[in-house]
RNA sequence: GUGGGUGUAGUUCAGCCUGGCAGAACACUUGACUGUGGCUCAAGAUGUCGCGGGUUCAAAUCCCGUCACCCACCCCA
């Protein structure tokens, strides 16, 4: 027997109904906030992700699905932001549309070892706002993320907020971190010792208890690495969030694993998720458009993991039980009645009445049981007697 | 890439420790005055015990290998 490839899942009708509802809620809210849908290809040039995510990130080095073809290397997209920036530039949207707000829903691919909340094909639902840098825009994006959670019925999450500063600040921060950690690094776990040279920010994020304790001791003073503009920008954002009564937790140790993030970053985590506890995350990427060959254009975005939303117990989107039931089940008994029933079935449907009939030649009793399982309101019985008298029986299943 | 756990009916699982006829519940089929559902009762069908090898008179059970899934590390949404 064939099996779905490792880390992929079939979404069967019962669950599919839930997915549609999540997507519908998303579309409704995105539209309220003025975001328009963008659909980009699932395959992209491998270089796009090397340039945007960073050639030395885990995602690019180890998790890409590479498709060699026609002497070129395509990859299944591991995320959407790079594709959307590519589309923005390729279609000259900075000239045609200027500041643009996009939303997207679709599958992403990373060749990881599957576990709870982590698949090789997973689905993102997210937004990108390209062409403006204003703390109010950051606040809108954050507000949009929390609005979605509210609409999904998800509570009990944590909203973590931090700033990485502008690209120059990031560099400075990395230097400071290395300096502070230099004499201590031998006390950290082997992973962290690796991170020291590779991605020093991640040491702040280590789950190892010993490392955490050491990190707690390190006092990180924003003023040491953030420039004045970044500091006041972040302060403005916090003021706006406070004023709008949006709750957040300042998390100085929150760093992102992808190279393109700058400035405002955030992550939404939830205890229902297990080890992979990020429900969604995002932030500014003010240097990415230029990195991909455009002008210096600022941008911000975030994405939720659909599979992770579905892991939250408080999620209250309708499931199959609340689906609109089939209205009528048509029972026929014997081949002659079936012919007439088939015409009747079409007439019912043309009149907008959902209706089904039996194709398994079951007994009357079995057909009624089927009708009951389907939860129909009415059953039409068309048997030999009815056929002779040119009549039929309409049975109200509820009363 | 590294570690731990689990693979038995359509589904959820028991049985494994201590080897001896393959089990339960739910679901399914049929029947209970011939053509009337739900509730109840009765009867019935359903298996490569993940796969391969070994030990044994005898293996779902013990041993070795292998594959798959789940969880965790790493990394990320």
Describe this structure in words.
This protein has 399 residues and is of the alpha/beta class. It contains 16 helices and 15 strands. The strands form 3 sheets. Strands 1-5-6-11-10-9-7-8 form an 8-stranded mixed sheet, with helices on both faces. Strands 13-12-14-15 form a 4-stranded mixed sheet, with helices on both faces. A hairpin with an 8-residue loop joins β9 and β10. α1 runs antiparallel to α6 and α6 crosses α11. The protein binds one RNA strand of 77 nucleotides through α3, β6, β10, β11 and α13.
Could you provide a short overview of the structure?
With 399 residues, this protein is of the alpha/beta class.
Detail the topology: elements first, then pairings.
Elements: H1 13-32, E1 36-37, E2 43-45, H2 46-53, H3 58-62, E3 65-69, E4 72-76, H4 81-90, H5 93-96, E5 100-109, E6 121-130, H6 135-152, E7 158-163, H7 167-181, H8 190-198, H9 209-217, H10 222-225, H11 228-243, E8 249-250, E9 262-269, E10 278-284, H12 288-291, E11 299-305, H13 306-309, E12 328-332, H14 335-350, E13 355-357, H15 364-374, E14 378-382, H16 384-389, E15 393-396
Parallel strand pairs: 1-5, 7-8, 12-13, 12-14
Antiparallel strand pairs: 2-4, 3-4, 5-6, 6-11, 7-9, 9-10, 10-11, 14-15
Helix pairs in contact: 1-6, 6-11
The structure holds one RNA strand of 77 nucleotides.
